Hints:
The protein is an all-alpha fold. It is about 80% helix and about 0% strand.
Amino acid sequence: LPSICLGIFGWFFLADSPESAWYLSPFERKTLVIRSSRDQREASTPSAKILNRADVLAAVKDWKVWAFCLQNFPGDIQLFSYTIFLPTIIKAVNPAWSTLYVQALTVPCFAWSAISYLLAAYLSDRTQHRAVFGILGCSVSIVGHVMLIAGQGIAVRFAGCFFIATGLFLVSGIALAWLATNLPRYGKRSTAVGMQLMIGNSAGIAAPYRCVECDLVVVHGHGE
């Protein structure tokens, strides 16, 4: 239902072209038109339409691409682990809470994560900086993990879930946008993004097995 409502809203809200984007300032519309024209000129060249071997090798040999890939892997481990095991984590904060109550408590955590991500994306675009928001998101998430591990009391440990949620999507999302916008050639960009997504998403394989005790809790928890 939310997807259907969002689709209807987007039909009337989203502009058909940069020139008609009423939610952008005149300067932003002009800049977007210039960038679109530049991209179209680059896409019209023969080399831009072909996935050249040289571009693929350039991406594979670029240490910065591998740095982004390796950074994405642990970031996605946190992402997959949090989204899958959040009910189990909250249940461990206070075992007396019912399953229905625990599920309800996951809603504000994910809502705050979405708000943090959108706010950081807006500020990152405005300031034209990526690294600072990725580092801040990672640092805040680390604080949240410490609160869950060493925190005393229900309030402190539950607050740790919000700290983790603050940087949950920033660590991976900022990196995805950062890498793609800094590789002008089509072949290198498409190869690098594919590498980043492949290595990052493979974290979903490792995430469920990083804690055997957590797996046992999840198995028992599903039987409630």
